[in-house]
Every structure is written in C-alpha cells, then in structure tokens.
Amino acid sequence: AAKLTGTNRFRDHSGELDATAAHHAELAAALRRGLDHGEFRLVYQPIVELPTGAITGVEALVRWQPADGPVVSPAEFIPVAEHSGLIIDLGAWILDQACADAAAWHRRHGAGAPRVNINVSARQLLDPDLPGLVADALHRHRLSPDRITIEITETAVFAGGVALGTVRELRELGVGLALDDFGTGHSSLTLLRTCPVTTLKVDKSFIDDLNGTAEQEAIATSLSTIAATLGLRAVAEGVETRDQADRLHALGYRYAQGYYFARPSPAEEIDAALAEMALAS
Ligand code: C2E
Ligand code: MG
Ligand code: MG
Ligand code: MG
C-alpha cells in the first residue's frame, strides 16, 4: 500500500504522469524501485518487407507497468531515466532481455527469426562501456552480432564528443546501426558521412504527410534514394494506412513499420506470428 501512494503521487487528476520539477526525484526513485521489482517489460513491433508482408525485424520497445497503476509510456519515463542516470541500468536490462528474446527466436525459427532492433539513448551512447556491454550480452546469449541492430538518434550522436567513437566501436562489433527518426535532426546529411549506420528509419512525420501531393512524395522518395545511394536500407516508420503502405512501396521503399501492419506486442505473440508465417510459406 505504501508503494501504491508512492506511484500515484506522480499522477495528476487526469492520471497523467506529472514529471515536473517537484516530483522528478520521486519519479526517478519509483523507476529505480520498478527496475528492482521487475516492473519493466519489452514489447516488440514488427518491421515488415513491403512486397511480401514478411516480418524481417522487430523493434524492442520498453514499457513500465507499476504494481499500482496503468502502463506508463517510455516517452514519459525515458527522459527521467536519462536525467537520473537510471537509463544505464535500465538500458542494460533492456539489452539483456532483447538479446534473450532474439536468441530464443533464433533457436525456434532459425533463418525465419527477425533481427531485433534495440533503442539506445544519448546518455547510453556517452557511456564508453556500451560497446563492451553489447559484446557481453551477445556472448552470454550466444547471439551473432548481425542478429541485432542498435537504434540511435542524431541528437544522441551530437550530444557529446565521445559518442561518435562509441558508435564506430559498436559497428565494429558487427551489429547493425539504425539512425532513428531520420530527417528530423539538423545535420542528417553531414552525419551520414561520418557515422557508420546501416539503416535509416525515415521519421513518421514524412510518412504522415504522404498524402499524394507531389512535394511530399518527392521528399519521401529523396529520403529512400539517399539510403539506396549510400547502400543503406530505409525503413518507413509509423505507417498507419494501407494507402500509405501502397504508396511507399510504389516510391521504392522496401521496409516499413507501423500500426497498419502490427502494434507492439509481447514476445509470445511475435513468436506465434513467426510460427504462422513459417506454416504459410
Ligand atoms: P521510437 O524509437 O521512434 O519508436 C517508435 C514509436 O512509435 C513507438 O512508441 C511505437 O509504438 C510508435 N509507433 C509505431 N508505429 C506507429 C504508428 O503507426 N502510429 C503511431 N502513432 N505510433 C507508432 P513508444 O513505444 O511509445 O516509444 C516512444 C519512444 O520512446 C521511442 O521512439 C524511443 O525513442 C523511446 N523508447 C522506447 N523504448 C525504448 C528503449 O527500450 N530504450 C530507449 N532508450 N528508448 C526507448
Ligand atoms: Mg526506435
Ligand atoms: Mg523511430
Ligand atoms: Mg520516433
């Protein structure tokens, strides 16, 4: 019961988390307790191949389920976890869990297992131990590095001087590297010259705007052309309608992710979808 008041104290009358100054430290402490009590879990959203609809990858997305309240979105707690430094321990847990699930899928589905995308935040990228941590997780789960892709954002790479070196070390391990929310940062093209990414995740805002006007289509096409020219794969993010999916396919996109294909769901549901896919093929 003490814990109950503990978490609800961060909610306002509408039930939204109130992460403003006064409650910040308490929220950080609740996150810490949540990690110690196993209140975090991962859900996975499929990344599909547009021509076939086959699941070729999944993105791991973290959820916080406090014992005494509704599920909290990462958009609300990741910034707090970053600020408090908890993201280092939380990030290590996420990495380990995602690698465990990736290894289990690989054992059960072999070549049909999806590559697993794992988000890392700016603070994690500033940690010089990150590449070692990733190498260790791969080793413990006997996972080949090409089975995972680390998702980073431009802002994270620009957050500090050591980040680019860390990114290069990650790439040298052999893991995939995706630039998340691509196109929303300020120096996308400059960054592509120096940052050894393998995938561009074209931000949802460009996909939302894909309403058939020549300009919006030109932008979406350019972004996929940039990827193709540099030998990178492009993934369209946040695809919500069949119309968007068809248009993206016509514009040359090969991979997409979004509610139209699948919502993020627990590992067991992904497993069932993979089993079904194998039966159908
Ligand atoms: P992101 O990495 O860009 O993840 C994509 C977000 O878009 C996810 O929100 C996903 O559920 C949502 N999404 C996917 N398809 C659609 C769609 O068709 N329509 C709409 N409206 N949304 C869609 P989510 O899970 O709430 O995560 C939000 C952000 O929180 C992520 O953005 C990422 O920046 C961060 N995050 C999530 N999980 C992790 C994690 O494990 N570690 C770190 N460091 N950050 C994470
Ligand atoms: Mg992401
Ligand atoms: Mg994204
Ligand atoms: Mg995003």
TrEMBL record:
Coiled coil: none annotated. Residues 24-278 form the EAL domain. This is Putative diguanylate cyclase/phosphodiesterase. It comes from Actinoplanes missouriensis (strain ATCC 14538 / DSM 43046 / CBS 188.64 / JCM 3121 / NBRC 102363 / NCIMB 12654 / NRRL B-3342 / UNCC 431).
